[in-house]
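Supplementary Data S3. Sequence and structure tokens for construct A.
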Amino acid sequence: MKELFRVTQETNGKGTVLFAWQKSGNYLACVGANRRVQIFDRQGRLYHQMSLEDYGKVLAIDWDYLDETLAVLQEGASKIPLFHINSKKEESIETTMRELSFLRWAISGPFLAIGTIRGTLLIYNKKTSKYVPIKGKHTKKITTGCWNSSNILALGSEDCQVTISNEKGDTLRQKPVKYEPKFMEFIRVKKRNARDTTTTCIVGSNFWMYDIEEETDSKPTELGFSDDYGQMVCYKSFGDGYILLGFDKGYVVIASTHSEEIGSEVNSCKVHSTELKNLTYCEALKKGASIGENVVKVFDLSNLATFDSAIVDKYEIDNEYGALSRVEWTEDGQILTISSNNGNLYSFLTSIPALNDSHGTNVLILISLRELMIKDEANDKMVAKFEINIEPSFVALGPEHVAVGMNNRVWYYRVENNTASIVAEKEYLGTVDKVSVGFDYTAVLSGGQITLQLIENSNEEKWKGKEEKHFPEKEDGTSITALAMAPDFLIYSTSKGTICYFSLDDWTTVNEFRHEMGITSIFPNIIGTRLVFIDESRAAYLYSPVDDTLVGIEDFPTSVDKVLWDNSDQNVFTVCDSKRFTTYVYCNPTRWGPKVKPIKLDDLAVRTPRPEGFSPIFFNNGKVCCQMKNGALAHVRLLSHIEYDTKNREEKKKLFSQHLCLLRFDDAWQVAMDLKDENCWDRLRDHAIDNLEIEIALKVYRMRGNAAMVMALSELLTIDETNLIIGNLSLIYGDFTEAESKFLQSSQQIKALEMRRDLMHWDRALQLAQTLDPKQIPIISREYANQLELKGEFQKAYDLYQRAILDDVLENNTHNQSCHEGLTRITIRLGDLRRGFDLAMKSKNKKLCRECASIFEELSQFDDAAALYEEAEMFEKAAEIYIQNKSYSKVTNLMKTKNILNPKLHLQYAKAKELEGKYEEAATSYERAGDLNSVININLRFLNNIPKAIEIVKKTKTTDGANMIALFCKEKGDYKTAIEFLVMAEKQEDAFELAQTHDEMDTYARIIGDEGQAKDEYMYIAKYYESKMNLDKAADYYFKCEEYSTALTLYIQCSSRLKQDSKEMETIIDKAIEVVAAAKNDKLTHTLIDFLMGQVDNIPKDPKHVFRLYMALGNFKQAAGTALIIAKQEQEIGNYHIAHSILFDTVRQLEKKGHHVQFELRESLILLHSYLIVKYLIKMQETQMAARMLLRITKNISKFPHHTVQILTSTSLLCYKAELKKAAFENATILIRPEHQNLIQKEKKDSIFKIVRKRRNNQEDPPEVTTPCPMCSVPLAESALYCEHCMNNIPFCIASGYHLTLTDWCLCPQCQFSARYSFFVKMVESLGNKCPMCAQKVTPEEVHQLSQEQAKLALEKYIK
């Protein structure tokens, strides 16, 4: 709400101001204490001023029902001044009566009611300029009154009476009231055919109502309200029978006149904190306004339930302008006027006409009564704002111009540099109904005709002859109903159903479409290529002038204000009716041609509520730009384009559905990729197919792995013709009628015939061939005949085969042969058997003979059938029929001469030979037939060929055959063989019983072996051996049936009978270890350990058994400790290879199982290995390397007590040879000690002493070569296996004994131990392709050097 204009006390005089608006709202009359009546227009400009002759206070002013004459009532005056606005004429009514007190014009007639303080009524007739006095109407001063639409007058007086009179002054009704009535009005109450027949007024503190049309003279209704509200000061009727009441304590109450609700409050609210002076209501806005405390408050009454919270506007007026006294709205709700008791009058702009238009992304709106604004809605940018000289009734926006106008005149403005300037003013013959503005032209619809003319006059040559044109071009009674301007066309529709496109460049009509009935409105897109129109039946269609297609629009609203095309998506438009927006999408092309569909979500059309008072202007990307009643812009997001939360899966599914409905297939694909929902894929595929989005459908089928559909749709990508694409899709989806229709409409009509042939729709194919390709008729006839033959319609097929025969030329041979074959088959079918047989035999056609033979077989003509089968070289089938027909001689001949492989035939033949006693031939045929049981039986019973029978059973594992051999052998006393075959025959109980009876349990146990499926079988054997005191075997079978405790006990008992170091004892202990490992039982483990430690028989067993037990149990730590003990024992007695083997196996098994190898274990292996490779290094003449290894040994010489002198001797001599003379001297010095001297070999003793004697002082050995530490890269002596820098033990090379380097690393392919690649290959070749660690065969080609990254990975196991 903004202030429009103000009339101050300097103009009105200080005191109360009276004012009255015309019903049209064009002029405002006001008068103040200075008794000067002033007339203002809507902008607050003074139109006329009239000074009053009398000096009395002005009591009332009022406009007549035609808004032509203003009447003024003055206190103490005898005349009524009148002002006629059209002529600006002033006159007065002379009444001859003084002290007039009341004045009111009738609302639908020329009558003016005038009352006096003595109760006299005067009724003045404006038409006759006469008045009629009615004395005695009241006994006291007439103070209030009103007219209704039937010219009935109600008056109230200080005599506390209410009179009802007609326009002649005759009293119709009279009702007494308790107090003087005030503010009398006629209202409509809620009842059938309600008219303004209920008179109301304020009586005291109550609301008084009386219906003057009640048939009986009923009593008036008087409504009282809470004393908390205060005194009732004013009221207004509104809506559907409601009353708005104002109370002086600031309360506003809504009451109902509905019969069932009368007397009850609908709602109430304390609008003002201390006082309320006056209120009013505007039906156009459905709002109320109240004044008090120098504040104007406006509240929304569209929803009475929320009235208490619906105060929407507040405007404070300075106290210096006086207390507010009265408030009133113009009927259109645009101006709210307020008066004060200090002589000030305020007019506020509360709403403006919804005048707007759009072009492209620009919208034009009226923001004040005479001010326009253009805004770029897409970019949210102001284009121009400017004032105009009139208050327009219509506006139009073009690319560069704005048109505004009223009645029959239009003013044109050019828009540039953020403002607009008038460039033309045009006047038309009739009232302008519609204006549409283009680049250079304007089109004006007036009186059913269009005037097309240049906006700005120009003398340029290009406009000559094109300055102006009128439509319709022919005077045939056609009336133009709607128009629109596109960049290149004027588009208009007519009452006869024509839509015309007039080219502005060619200056002629270039397209004309005729509809079956008159068209009322058109709504083209911005370039005119698509157009929605509505006809007289309110049906809507979408028309495309590009291809002249017309599409009906389903579910179209019956009453439409506008159709707006989406600026960002030219396939989408929204239809605006009074209550909602309905969004549609234009689908073209589709499988069924162009379609227009409402956007549906969950199978329901999406309709967005249209807020009250919103005038739609522009539609862009799902948002409708609207103008509100106050002139501001607002946006409505359509439910069809609602924004969803993509983080929520259900919301994302709704977004997917939205994209599908709006044909945004690429967006739908992206959402479907995120959802990965089968239903979404199916819907996307179906929508894509329906809308011919082949690439999207192809992607879906490819995603779903449907290769057949991918291949089928891929072929459609190369087709540009829509009808061909639709035809192929209809064919794929089984709509053959549609497919044929589209193929026939395409450029490749022959595809319709090809489709019908492929589908074997022969009748239709023959019809199509008549017109499309007559040459195909014989081929189709042959194929049709073939199908009829299969269906049993032989006579019709025979006729078609004859019709299909072509001329006897080479190129027709294959076709004619097929026809003759069909004729031959049908000849037999039709009963001419002999002729058919002869034709088949003469043809020498194997295929035909086979087919005819099958027919003869069906007809039970077996001899002819067999003969034809023989002719067709189907000898097995012929033999089968001969056997069926008991022609054994012919069968024998066939079996001997032809390579017949049919088992069934051989079986029948074998039975026949067996009956003849020819057992060899019978056995051969049984074998060919696969009846091995019969073969076994004949070999056993008749041919006495037992090995052959046994061979067959062992090969085939047949239980029946095995049973036959078992029974046969049992009869012959061969129990071992019988037991074997009883087991094979799965008769274990019989086999066990036979073995037990004849003491052949070893045989049974051997046969059962690992094949036993049930523990019971092993248990029976175990108990049998236990009963026979064969404890070893009993334990074996107790182990198999998982009786671990019993098995272990028996193994230990068995060991007491064996020698301690025998192989049998070793075997028993190994089996006991297996039992304990399988049992995983601590008690059994301890039992076995006690046995191995000698606590059972006082004989300790070899420690290696304890080692193997720990390994079997997975106790690798204990196993490693045991291995070290065993290796140490072997090493101390000089068994270095055995000790090395034990340590190697232990390390290897621990590494294989992923367990950490203890340093002590790995160190012991390194020492032993370093000693063992010395001889290999000496052989390779690597003296320096060998000497370094021996020096490593001498540092740990105490671990080699058995060969201490020999090792020291070899070390001294080899070091001396390797120029390590200091090291040689140090070892020789130890050797010549008394405890070692006598043990030195004689031939080497002189050399040792020589080394000691020739020792030079301060003689040092040459420094050892260094290589980088593989862990920290610090240089390190090659033979060193510990890095002082990183304090890590370093892995050694199994070939050289030196530490490893990352740049020269490899693994033995057999044992996976690390080595230096360069030296390992040399040693493998020197040892004859053998690994020095595991002694397995290794070739140099199998060894591969590791990269530094691989070497680092191999190094990790050493640093755990």
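Construct B, processed identically:
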Amino acid sequence: SHSLSLSSVGIMAALLRSAQLLVASASRSVVSATGYESRNGIGRLRWRPAPSLRTWGCKSTINQIRLLVVAPQEVGSAKEEISSPIRTKQAQQFDWALNKLDSSVKRTGRITKTLLQKVFHDICRTGYPSSNQALLLLRSCGSLLPELQLSDRTEFAHRIWDKLQELGAVYDVSHYNALIKVYLQNEHTFSPTDFLTKMEAAKVQPNRVTYQRLIAAYCNAGDIEGASKILGFMKRKDLPITETVFSSLVTGHSRAGDLKNAENILSVMKDAGIEPGAETYIALLNAYAEKGDMDKIKKTLENVEKTEDHLTDRDLMQVVWSLAKAGYPQHVQDVLDGLTYERGYIPDAMNLCLNLKTQGFDDIAFQILKSFPLPPDDQNGDSPQHGNFFLRHCVNMDTPSSTLKQFCSELKASNLHASPLQFTLHCALDAKKTDLALDLMKMMKEEGLPVRAHYFWPLLATYQKEKDAKGAIAILKAMHQLGVEPDMETYTNYVLTVVDDTKAAHAVLQEHNCPVNSNELYASEVRIESINGRLDNVISLLSSPSMPAVDLQSFKGSLILGFKRSGDVNQMAKITELLYKDGRYCQTSPGPIVAVGYFLYNLIDSMSDSEVQAKEERLRQYFHQLKEMNIVITANIYRGIRKLLDTYHVPELIKDVRVLVDGKELSSFSDLHKATRTNADDLEKELEELRAKNEPIGDILRQLIMALCAEENMQKALEVKARYEADMDVGCYAVLIKLCCRHDNAEEALNLKQEVTRKDSSVTLDASKYLGLVKVLGKHGKLEDAINILKEMKEKDVFLKDAAGTSFFHILNTAAVRGEVETVNRLHEAIMIFGFAKPSSNLCSPLVTVHLEKDNVLAALEATLDCYKKYKCIPRLHDVLCKLIEREDTDHLQKAMDFVTQQQGEMMMLYELFFAFLQTKKYKEARKIIETPGLRARPGKLLWFAEKCIAANQIETLENLVELTQKLFECDRDEMYFCLLKLCKENNWQKAEAVWTNMQEENVIPRERTLKLLADIFKQNGQEVPFDVPETWYNEAADGASNSSSTFPVLENNLQKHIMILSKKRKAKEAYDTFLQAEKKGLKFNYSTYSNLLKVLLAEGYLEEALKLKNIAKTHIKGFTLNDAASSLLIITQVRRDYLKDALLSLKTMLAEDKVPTKLAVTRLVQALAEKGDIESINEVEDMMKNLSESLQMSRMLFINNRVLAHIRNNDIETAIECIEPLLISGKQNSSTPISSMAYVFRKVIEENQEAALEKLSAMAERLANQFAVYRPVTDIFLTYMDTGRVDDAKFLLQRCSAIAEQRENLVSYVTKSSQKPGKAQKITALLDVLPDFQEKETAYCYLMKCFAFDKDLASARALYDKMKAEGWSIDELSLKRYAVLLKDAGEPVPFPEPPESFKYYAEKLKREKGLSSDSD
């Protein structure tokens, strides 16, 4: 039937395609000088997905496009020529409207009335509608609006026609043709003769398309005579008679009651040399459908199958539509049974449903909805939600609630929708249909579904906005009838605000006998009165005997807001006293002291620094009144408030808060912070003394065990445990178990666990101890013991945090990397059975990894598929597919793809295959996949693969991803290019320039971040940026400041902004000069401005200026002090200026003010004191930093080494040696006080050419090595010789002390550090030359390959690779990866399979395997 065309997508695609040509054509005259727009328009035309020619007629469309293009030239005299700027503006607006409607049609096959109205209003608002825009709007008023009645669509078209004509749009033949098409699709009755008369009056000549459509209009009415007249006219004009005309004649004869002649039209066509096509057969099928002749429909379909033509699902849906309209619903199912559910079925079927529902064929529409194929189970666990579009349309069409209930019940029973009633309710609320919404809630209640208070909020919001108290009360009564109690948010936001006064609201509720929830209502009143700052009313409410018990948490936020808005300290204090002393408001644990304390903390926390400073006096009075009311807070809360006040720079208030803390608690709190830790040696002595006195030793024993565990001294801890086993408690065993697990000692860890169980089988360890046991037992082959631990966790119901899933993954993955199939399978099965973690792709991935590690791809595939069957997840599918493709195992690849298609859908399968082909560099196959018709972008999947390429530095693969997705529908091209530019960031500006060119050719509009990244790449490589870089206000203002540093705005806030900008740009001198100018004008700034300027002045070495600024700031801001960072910078600057006494004084001042200096500041000061030989001051600094050294992670070697250097500066080498030698010996004998590296001392001595000191230090080091087996000093000297190029001295030292070669840990550490920066390969090579029998040569080779990769030294890397193979070393994957990248960069083939994962992956893997500290590359 021509009355309703279901080929919406095809028609719209024709519209959009012709429209694009119009844009290109119109733009040529504007930008013909460059030709860019013209080329761009054709480019879009080339790749935009186009419908089949059969859908809209190839020849007619080309003719139509030609006529559309030339028509404006024919009527050009009717209007004045529009100016070029206006034409350009029209083209831009048209492109915007085109994209809007284009996106809607491609996604859904339809356009909503709301969207079309929006585009229409936007075009009208500009005042310059173009002919193209008018054509676009008119063509959208037909079958693309299935949710509107046919008459409404036509009325909309007429409104558009009249309005745009009024605004000056010029109509040509294409517009009239579009209007006829709309009439046909909307079954609008009109006179073709009158229509031609109107065209003649407008001086518009009809064309072939006009005549064809007028013939269709006559035929739809069964007027063969009228159609024949136009047909004869076409013949006289020698216009071709196409299949479209014949199909219209089939319809015309049928509707005239002459079905025989309708059938004979096919013979006439063949005689005329035109083969009947799908269009003709559809017209004949519709003719049979209108007669209800199902036998002839089936016979015709059989005949079509014998021809070369093919009827699509969309074609058959037109037959369904004809059957429904003709009143033959009993035959609809027969046609539906013939559908093949091809691609695009769902949107077409949805539009048919909407059309049927709109025209009142509810049952048939619902029948089609139920015929939708059931989707595969959602991999994310989401419930089915199909039918939403239908339910929403039913609500909009005012379908009775009883009918809606029936639809919802059947949808749920058919498993098409998990919660249809709830969604329908959502639609009713959205459409503001109150009666329907209440009926639906009653149905939900009857079915046992929850009805919650917030469901009523949209209904109440309408009455609240209109101040309709009666309407709001009606809703409250309905809530009561449904058994739903209004909560506090309901009363606060929607009920009490209906009237202006809460007391009046009470009266209205009582007057209408509205039941209320008194607790929630009173709390809501407190909220509203607090928000409005009426604290007197709050006091009345809280002190009223009728006020029910309401927890402070329910109105705390509103009360804080009220306190900030009120200036009455007495009222604030009175309310706080009521909260503290009246038990109704703090009933829950931990009581009023904590609750009110947190209220005070939140009050201060909610205020800005300027607010606190402005209200400082008021807050002081408030705290004093609280003290007089005997209100107390805890010491912990006081500490939090103190930190806030410190941050706000109002330290004077701290003492006012301090008075609220209980005296005893404050005292113990202070003592606790002054306490210092006792070391293990002292604890052991104390333990022995207590044992000798036969006194209890439990507490001291626990402290000793914990101290030894903190020092990682496992052997000593186990010795102590064996000696005092009878006194060991559970806590001691727990920390020992954890220590043994950390040290990979499975035997001892298991023994300790068994001892605990023997002592008390009911003891439950925490989760981390159990997981540590499982990990270490599994690693050492004690699988049964590991599973027994898991069983015990289940039996004792051990609490596991959410992060436990990650721990289980690492346990399983470690076993998988080792290739232990049974361990992985049994542990994973136990974890699942005991319910310790939910199954996920990540947690299941070791089940696949273990087979991939053993290169058993088929087993890995089976494991992947089995995971889906058991757990509904498909782990490591991408890696399995890549392996299958590499092996060209097409049978198993097909098996995997069939499974993915069945379980996750065809689109997911296509993406997995696309990524696998890309990964394996089969780009031709990848192109075929991504060009599959109907495939659309999945942003998350594309970004995942792009990030994977970035992590693995696979620039070629990423380039192909970006290129191949160019035509992918809805692909975010800027995102793709941004990912590609990330890989170009490091010294590859030529590649970045090529990317920029490609973006321009593709007409990609880059986001700000993309332009900034591109500009950074060009700037870093000394290239000119070929575009304007988008700047933030910060950069723009800074540039402005630097360009005209002598001209500044007068206003204070602008000056302040300038100073902040220049400070952040580290332009210290300019910022300071700006500040001085402001100071002359008497301007004052906030704390942040002074602080930031101070820091940048100190960082740049402007000490005098910084001190002057500090003094000025003190006069402007009461109590101004430097913060920790600025104070530390001050010390560093003073040291740099050699003002060591001032620096020492600054450090003392900092510590006296409870500030913490940075580690760098202390280090610089101590080193400078050593330069001066000031041993006394070094000792003083060490004493001052005693309590902070641990928190700052400051090694005691800082003071030891610099004390030694100070003695050497004073030419007192003997004392220096006497100072250090006993410490080195005692450190060897007592592992609790080890002495680490002296390399710093040796380096300084060598750099300063103090040979005498070096000789004596070397003699000391050799003596310690030979007599006391203390090898660290001599090894440090050896490595310092190597590092400073004194290789001969290193060789001589090695000859005298051969044990140096056995210091594996120190030597490997030197190799590791040497590999951290480029250009250091020679150091490792020299070390291997001196130590030819180095025990860790394999490790050294690994780091040497890293150095060659850093230096891009392919020749050396190749030589190293050959050498390792010749010496029989097993080359690790990380080294192979680095060597492979060097070869590829040089364009050479890789002689081995390149490891596929990222550098980070292999670095982590190597670290796990060898236990070495490794960087992550």
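DSSP finds 79 helices and no strands in the chain. The mean pLDDT is 80.
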